């Protein structure tokens, strides 16, 4: 069994209000020096068998069609 991680982040040109709200709150909480925050999503996908090229291509297709909105989000697939 293999475990694959899909990290999904908003594209840099897309406004991230949640990240901005976190960044504004940090100095009030005593955390100085943070310039920006971007929020994202992480998915862990367990696969039967090895994380070979075909399996990673399937996970890429899953991420592209279900886990991420390719219009506003980028994603990265990696093996744990």
UniProtKB/TrEMBL annotation:
Catalyzed chemical reaction(s): N(2)-formyl-N(1)-(5-phospho-beta-D-ribosyl)glycinamide + L-glutamine + ATP + H2O = 2-formamido-N(1)-(5-O-phospho-beta-D-ribosyl)acetamidine + L-glutamate + ADP + phosphate + H(+)
Pfam families with a match to the protein in the record: PurS
An example Gene Ontology molecular-function term: phosphoribosylformylglycinamidine synthase activity
Classification via SUPFAM superfamilies: PurS-like (SSF82697)
Gene Ontology annotations of biological process type: 'de novo' IMP biosynthetic process
Any one cellular-component term (Gene Ontology): cytoplasm
Involved pathway(s): Purine metabolism; IMP biosynthesis via de novo pathway; 5-amino-1-(5-phospho-D-ribosyl)imidazole from N(2)-formyl-N(1)-(5-phospho-D-ribosyl)glycinamide: step 1/2
Keyword Ligase: yes
Subcellular localization, as worded in the UniProt entry: Cytoplasm
Keyword Transferase: no
Keywords from the named record: ATP-binding, Cytoplasm, Ligase, Nucleotide-binding, Purine biosynthesis
Origin: domain of life: Bacteria
Enzymatic class: ligase
This enzyme's EC code(s): 6.3.5.3
Coiled-coil parts of chain: none
Coarse class of the protein's main subcellular location: cytoplasm
InterPro entries linked: PurS, PurS-like_sf
Subunit structure: Part of the FGAM synthase complex composed of 1 PurL, 1 PurQ and 2 PurS subunits.
Function (record text): Part of the phosphoribosylformylglycinamidine synthase complex involved in the purines biosynthetic pathway. Catalyzes the ATP-dependent conversion of formylglycinamide ribonucleotide (FGAR) and glutamine to yield formylglycinamidine ribonucleotide (FGAM) and glutamate. The FGAM synthase complex is composed of three subunits. PurQ produces an ammonia molecule by converting glutamine to glutamate. PurL transfers the ammonia molecule to FGAR to form FGAM in an ATP-dependent manner.
Family: Belongs to the PurS family.
Full protein name: Phosphoribosylformylglycinamidine synthase subunit PurS
Source organism of this protein record: Actinomadura rubrisoli
């Amino acid at each position: 069994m293999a475990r694959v991680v899909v990290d999904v982040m908003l594209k840099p040109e897309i406004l991230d209000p949640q990240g901005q709200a976190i960044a504004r709150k940090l100095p009030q909480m005593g955390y100085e020096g943070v310039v920006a925050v971007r929020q994202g999503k992480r998915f862990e996908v367990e696969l039967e068998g090895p994380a070979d090229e075909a399996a990673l291509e399937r996970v890429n297709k899953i991420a592209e069609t279900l886990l991420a909105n390719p219009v506003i989000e980028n994603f990265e697939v990696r093996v744990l």
